[in-house]
Amino acid sequence: MGTLTELAAEALLFALAAMLAAALWWGRGDTRTLAVGLAGGAGAAASALATLAVKSVVTEERPCTAVPGVHALAECPPMGDWSFPSNHSGIAAALATAVVLASYAARRIWLCVLAAASAVVVAMLRVVSGVHYPHDVAAGLVFGASIAVAVAIVLTPVTAHLLRRVGLGGAVPAGEPRY
Fold it and tell me: What are phi and psi of 80, to 5 degrees?
């Protein structure tokens, strides 16, 4: 069982996934909203893999092992589980970005703000826990959001096409691109 900070960070990641599911549910009648939300969600998985790859190259020790006197509120991960960039922050930012991409067009600005704030809180909890430096979580946030946007740009046309092929989503409004 983890500490309160660990549990809160994990709970917020689940909440972000639930926000994305809600955004997709509310946008189920719009192929473009569904496509960009699903593609952005795929960006969260891509972010998780990419941050792990970068960690294996950078190999920065965590503050709970590298800085004498740091008291970690969470269990300090073992050596070899590197600090930079923060995987939790990257996933949180990627999920929040997917929520924003799927919610903004539907004018659910409150959900966009809630998702962005949740990602920032996840990042802050990782620093407060003593398992990441501030630059780890800042890089994770930028990395995760960037990857989610890049994956959404690449996959949205394909996803929209597949959704229409299986009969999901609605008609493309006049003047919108037909992916």
Answer: 100, -15
Tell me the one-letter amino acid at 70: V
- Report the phi/psi class of residue 130: left, alpha or beta, with left for phi > 0 and alpha for psi in -120 to 50: left
| CA atoms of 28 and 49, how far apart (whole Å) | 28
Helices (H) and strands (E) in the chain, counts: 6, 0
Omega before 63 cis (within 30°)? no
Q: How far apart are CA 59 and CA 107, in angstroms?
A: 42
Question: What residues does each domain of the chain span?
Answer: 9-58+84-165
Write out the chain's pLDDT in tens, 179 residues: 358 888 899 999 999 999 998 888 887 777 787 888 888 889 989 998 999 899 889 888 888 887 777 777 777 777 778 889 999 999 999 999 999 988 876 678 898 999 999 999 999 999 988 889 999 999 999 999 999 999 989 988 888 888 888 876 655 554 555 44
The pTM of the whole model exceeds 0.90: no
- Decide: 179 and 157 in contact? Cβ < 8 Å: yes
Taking alpha carbons only, the member of 80, 82, 93, 79 closest to residue 123 is: 93
> 125 with 9: CB under 8 angstroms?
yes
What three-state secondary structure class fits 131? coil
